[in-house]
Design goal:
17% strand, TIM Barrel, 308 residues, alpha/beta, two-stranded antiparallel ribbon, nine-stranded mixed sheet, binds iron/sulfur cluster
Length: 308
């Protein structure tokens, strides 16, 4: 634990290669960058441990497609990093042998990215036919291995808005206790390149996100969260906002092939998101990060409403 009481979380990017091709991907313009080598990653894992990292999140692109993925996890666990996790599109876990190998490496939890409740919605967003079927197989394989620490995240875009309640039912049915509904980031990558096609108005997205959170609460899953949202649209569920939670708990560093960020949470609030003149006097000003800078360029700030 650090002196400020926060846990150090290192997000270790292996590279940007991926077996999906999600339309909104923040890394859409980075696919051709070279992957880190195994030696480089093992060195970084050691460095993370020596810095006192309590959580190591290994991500890509899609980190699980690397042949050395389980070796990296095993190395982190052997070094004593308490929590090793990965965000994944889940497809590799469809192979029972790969799922068993990764579980045996000692990974503590995995977060499945699910962008729709069925193949029609999910595969249209991943641009990868069969990706939803594989993801479901991956979930089943992990459950069959007795591995229960499975979270979920969903990027909220125009085309899956209507399906969010059905997706919530999917998570409930699959007993996914920790889910994040992430309002798409248009500052970089696919959503920046195709803003109009992908990015919904927050006033359209928020009710559906709130509906999904309410379904989770009704099923006893009150720890589901919304991420990257202006708080005036989430007044009824302020205890379910990822940013508030993570600011209190973590200092997060990002170690990517092309950049290093020693305070990913702080810099997102300062550079990536913005509050505007409409926020003046808002009772939630201190805890709110506002909305994406790129969003304001396209849609303006008329949907922001200072909370009394
Ligand atoms: S008005 Fe501004 S500060 Fe207040 S909740 Fe909305 S976005 Fe946040």
């Amino acid at each position: 634990m650090r002196t400020d009481g926060k846990m150090l979380k290192v997000v270790l990017f292996t590279g940007y290669a991926c077996n999906n091709n999600c339309v909104f991907c923040i890394d859409a313009d980075k696919r051709a960058l070279p992957e880190k080598t195994t030696a480089q990653l093992l060195q970084e894992i050691l460095k993370a441990r020596n810095k006192g990292a309590e959580i190591l999140e290994i991500i890509g692109g899609e980190a699980t497609i690397r042949p050395d993925f389980d070796r990296l996890v095993a190395a982190a666990k052997k070094l004593g990093i308490p929590q090793v996790t990965c965000a994944t599109n889940g497809r590799v876990f469809a192979d029972p042998a790969a799922a068993a190998r990764i579980v045996a490496s000692g990974i503590d939890s995995v977060i499945f990215s699910v962008h729709g409740p069925d193949a029609a919605v999910h595969d249209a967003l991943t641009c990868s036919p069969g990706s939803f079927v594989q993801l479901k197989k991956g979930l089943r394989n992990l459950r069959a291995l007795g591995f229960g620490a499975i979270g979920g995240n969903t990027t909220v875009v125009k085309s899956n808005l209507a399906a969010l309640p059905r997706l919530a039912e999917f998570y409930i049915k699959n007993r996914v206790a920790n889910v994040e509904y992430i309002f798409v980031d248009p500052n970089y990558g696919g959503a920046r390149n195709n803003f109009k096609a992908l990015v919904p108005r927050i006033s359209r997205a928020a009710p559906q996100m709130r509906r999904a959170l309410a379904l989770g609460r009704a099923a006893g899953l009150g720890q589901w969260k919304a991420r990257y949202v202006p708080l005036c649209h989430f007044r009824g569920c302020l205890d379910q906002i990822s940013e508030t939670n993570e600011r209190e708990l973590f200092l997060t560093e990002h170690w990517a092939p092309d950049f290093k960020n020693a305070d990913a949470i702080g810099s997102r609030a300062v550079v990536g998101r913005r509050k505007t003149a409409r926020c003046r006097g808002c009772g939630l000003f201190a805890q709110c990060e506002g909305i994406w800078v790129e969003y304001l360029k396209h849609y303006g700030d008329s949907e922001l409403k200072a909370v009394k």
